[in-house]
Amino acid sequence: MNEDQKKKMMQRLKKLLTLSRSANENEAAAALAKAQELMRELEITEDDLELVDYATVESPVILMRPGHRLPIYGGMLTGTIEKAFGCKAIFSDSTIIWLGPKSKAEISAYSWTVLARLLSSKRAEYSFVIMLQERNPGRRAAKADTYCEGWVYGVGQNIIEEKLSEKEKRLTSLFTKQKFPSLGTMQQRGSGLSSDDSGDAWSDGIKDGKNTRLHSGVQADHKGQISETRYLGAGS
């Protein structure tokens, strides 16, 4: 049985299980018996049925150049989106793969793409603004990274975390293991600034990040869940 045939069979089983809750006792009993027969025949579990609605959706990494480590603010942004929509993110070469219920995975991928591009733009703006204050290119880049870390932290202050049930956590973990049985650890890089040096950049980032809203709990076809309440220039 190929993947398409399996999906069709899963959908048929789900319909039978829906019919098994019919008010018509005879119809309900017949549907349940047929569903149980198919599940035994195909060795399908209830978890398998639940996972029919799960999917993987890809988005470009954006915040990491090929051959380089992911900056910490990239990992922070990933975690923020995971919390907002209850999905799992896996880095693979030049893409991020979002795993979870299909609608949530699509929203997560979309949100990452929009926010990562916005953050790249904000980093460039901040680097330009502090050019006269910080002549050393290395320290300027480090401060821009710290600004980005603060920005993501600020964005995170606005989200309401998607609280997953134990069943949802288990299904997401199971789906992830099915798709990626062997997962490594993503290496990240920090800005390298001491806490004394990072203060202004960090607070500037938080201030600007708080002006970006990431709205959770919307449908996949309503992609207006990210908004910027005002221009996010440093010193605005």
Q: How helix-rich are the residues, as a percent range? A: 55-70%
Lateral strand order in the biggest sheet: 1-4-3
Q: How many helical elements?
A: 8
* End-to-end CA span: 59 Å
- Give the biggest beta sheet: 3 strands, antiparallel
Write the layout of secondary structure elements.
Blueprint: H1 3-19, H2 25-42, H3 46-50, E1 54-60, E2 70-71, H4 72-85, E3 88-92, E4 95-101, H5 102-129, H6 137-156, H7 166-179, E5 188-189, H8 195-209, E6 212-214, E7 226-228
Parallel strand pairs: 2-5
Antiparallel strand pairs: 1-4, 3-4, 6-7
Helix pairs in contact: 1-2, 4-5, 4-6, 5-6, 6-8
Structural commentary:
By secondary structure, the chain is α+β, with helices and mostly antiparallel strands. It is 56% helix and 12% strand. It is built from 8 helices and 7 strands. The protein has helices spanning 3-19, 25-42, 46-50, 72-85, 102-129, 137-156, 166-179, 195-209; strands spanning 54-60, 70-71, 88-92, 95-101, 188-189, 212-214, 226-228. The strands form 3 sheets. Strands 1-4-3 form a 3-stranded antiparallel β-sheet. The radius of gyration is 23 Å and the shape is elongated. The model is unreliable at 217-224 and 228-236 (pLDDT under 50).
Task: Briefly summarize what is shown.
The protein has eight helices and seven strands. With 236 residues, the protein is an alpha+beta fold.
